[in-house]
Protein 1
Amino acid sequence: MPHDPFVRDHTPSRDAQPEFRFTLPELRYPPRLNVVVELLDRWMERGHGEKPCFIGPQEAWTYAETAAQVDRYANALVKQYGLLPGQRVLLRAPNSPRMAAAYLAVMKAGGIVVATMPLLRAPELAAVITKARIDLALCDARLLPALEEAQRACPTLTRIVTFAAADAELDRAAERVDAHFDAYDSASDEPCLLGFTSGTTGGPKATIHYHRDLLAIADTYGRHVLRAESNDRFIGSPPLAFTFGLGGLVIFPLRVGASAVLLEKAPPEELLAAIRHYRPSIVFTAPTAYKAMLSKLEPGDTSSLRRCVSAGETLPASTFEAWRSATGLPLMDGIGATEMLHIFIGSPADEARAGSTGRVVPGYEARVVDANGAAVADGTPGQLAVRGPTGCRYLDDPRQARYVKDGWNYPGDTYIRDADGYFWYQARSDDMIISSGYNIAGPEVEAALLTHPAVLECGVVGLQDADRGTVVAAFVVVQPGITADASLALALQEHVKATIAPYKYPRVVEFVLELPKTASGKLRRNVLREARG
């Protein structure tokens, strides 16, 4: 069968990749493996077809209906649009059962998914298209303008096909083909996903993930930390283009035969309303969403929940404690990375500790090291290094050598590990502020500010200063109805002094209407720094 070799030809050499370790029995996958067969077809063989699978506001599918839609999409992609194994397919649509089905269909046919955030604009899309050398894109008709603008700058993109609605081009084509598709006989170490980083520094980086990788995150974090069951119902806010969302809303539920609610938009108020309506048992969202939902909780709102996963940004201890006090549920903090695919440090709910990311996920190893890569003593800050069954493979990118060193992945975070094996986040390694000889972690100052009732969101960075070298600067979004003035700035400074070591207080406080964020919702501290020079 013809094969598109582009990704294989631009994968880092073995020597440049991290050391992959498969220490758990469940991680020893066979040489031939198609992830969609394992996630979907196996449930059909077990008589699970009538169980609920994907649920959306417009339509809800059983496992049998999902399998049929996936196969119809796969048949149409291969027979009508000529999809080849190894070919990259860009997906552009909000979360929905049809978006998930298209994602699975591309992989089942041997293609490589390149899912993009719905909020991306034309220049950002053009960078993705160029980097991944994409010639076929599937796009929700409502999101066409930006993609069509990007296409004018990208001659490789020869075909845009609408999908994700009953009257869309791909969906009409799918109705004319068989509802059975024989999965492409892929190797377990064959690429099926290019996950693009948020691009907070430099151009975007594309991370290559294999069929086995998608199972590995379910068989490590999903199995040993989340501990999901077949009667669970998942819900969350992250887009499927964000690997946090892919794991939490597709991979983890399908691996155990559970169901997932897929929402087009899920800001805190809408997510809380959906939790009330759909009665899920597991929710995935960011720390700021949990904090925002706190003031709107009504009795019984969270009674269906048993797991609340938080990732994407640092989880302040104050938010952890406030959520647990209001709901009785501990937040399950975790750190993951697009390069690692999903969470590699995070504890089960009954072992969670306020302010700590948690302990290393079974199947992974993590350590805190110095500038030479040597492990430091517990209680000492240093660089986080991790390895396991997943890891960084950048598509044709010299930054591979910065992320992978001596077989370990370096996500770029400063951590402390305590004597109990819990990891405590200090800062992004390039977000550590050194002022008058003191090391100050910006996120620690943010956490202190967030305990003040006037603060909705904040970002803390270091700014150049003639006298002190660098000073701590806080950019603050206040709660609705609060007056942002000099007296409030002074009150916030005094609050920080009273909450953490006084030398860490922000000498500069600026009030802003919003903070710059990536498409996945991460704070872009580099933009805050650059705006002030």
Protein 2
Amino acid sequence: MTFPARILITILFCSAAVMCQSLVELTPEKDSEKLQKEAVAFLRETLTDVNGMRSLENRISFTAELAGLMWFHDEREARSMYGGVIADFKDLLTKYDAQMNELGATMADRQGGGFMSFGLEPTDKSQIVKRFTTAVGVRQQIAMTMAEHDPELAFSFYNDSLSAISNPEFRKEIERQDPYFETQLLTQIAQRDPAKAAQLATVSLKKGVTYQHIDLLKKIYAKNTEKGIEFGAAILSRLKTDKYDSTGYRARENFLSVIEYLIRFGDQRLNESRERGGKRPVYMNAEVRELVELMAQVILSQAENDMAEISNIDLIQKYSPGRASQIRAKFKNSTSRYSSMSNSANAIANTAAYYGGASNANANMSPEKREKLEKEVREAQERQELETRTMEGVQNLPNRELPKEEREKIVAQARGIIMQTPGRDKKIMGLSMLATQVSKAGDKELAKEIMRDAESMVNPSPKNYQDFILTWMLASGYASADPDKAFPLLEETIGRANDTLAAFIKVGEFIDVAEEVIQDGEVQVGAFGGQMVRGLTKELGMADTTIEVLANADFAKTKALTNRFDRAEIRILAKMMVLRAVLDPKKAGKPDAAPDVDVDY
């Protein structure tokens, strides 16, 4: 991605220090409650900052994410925030729709991307089409944040928002793209409420049955057998009432592929239901036969020269031998060619397996080479065993009463192993983990000494990407081992980074002739399909544990760190990261958390 903000924020926050996941100490419940209250107050402060942003897309994107976090603590206030987001989004879409109609813009006015596109001067039409496309992407982001809390509200918003688009060409284009994302949205809903997902998915079948509907059927059936059966019946009913267009080769092949996918799923569940303890299948034998009949009718409706091959004759034979005979008789050449191709493929596979096995069996190795190899394997195993024992000892340091000599031996072995590991990043991660465990065991001075070893590997005046990453990793280690050292280190690093950030923005403004990334001096974090806020805060979630440790140590100082950023949009993004790390129950394995669903925007 060429978007500068992604690089900039990654420089500051992307942390490979995943080891911190196991280093967080639990805080007393009263401290946790106090932190939550302070974080909610910080959320409201951040919302005020968001409302001051120039870009409406940015305001919508950030507010939607803040509303999602607020939901965990005040549902009524969160609903109010979502209401404002929906109203603002409809106004934005209506404005762009009117401008496109006024200019007479069409899909052909989209300006192509690519490396050299930055030098192309945009037209009024291409700019408005680009902004409209961005807004449509933001629509997906809003729906996804809502779906985590109120699936019905999310689905309603996603469908109702199209009413703001009067331009028939653009509306048709969005409707063409919607089914895939709609099923992704329904998949997320199914994780929490399979009954609601089945109800909403049945409505979506009006646009036709797709592969995604069958994948959704699998998830609903796995979560709730009865609701899965109900949705399966709705799919069958839709397939029986659909008017199949037999004129297009591509349409026919797609229909046959989808229905075969469904039949194989139904056949598998039916077989499993016959086993002891098996649950009720999605389709009974008669219903699978109905699906097979639909597939057979489509195949038989085609001319012989239209059929390249018939790969699903096995299914038809199993449930409808008569139809299978008819198909074989009509498409004798196709079925025989399919059998011939299958036999040839099997012969080739068997031949390759035979010669491959023979080659391996006949592999020769001299005694000297074999002895050398066996020695290397033994040494590697011994090293691995030593490392495993040492790391287990390190992990257990806080939980065991060890004599000083034994503890020092474990620490010395661990330091030796870590220092032999190639790569400064791995050394810093290892030393940070070791220092944290030593600190938990009560030896603060030794922990500081270990962290000084890590600090000696980091450039005190970071200049490039690697310098900033290593500095962040060092701060991650200090966050657990010695938070008082972490705060000033991060403050200084952010101060230095501001110059780098400003330089990146300048370069961005210089090359961004079309103002796709920077408008009115503000980075469009809501760009690229609305995934920037949601994607970046989730992607940079690797830093959540470190942020959580810092917030528990001193929330006021953690908030102050975010205000060290000069750029307003980056400052708000940093605040979002702090809020997500502290408020989102999906972090740190907190209960009642819905799993994340990856979505392609």
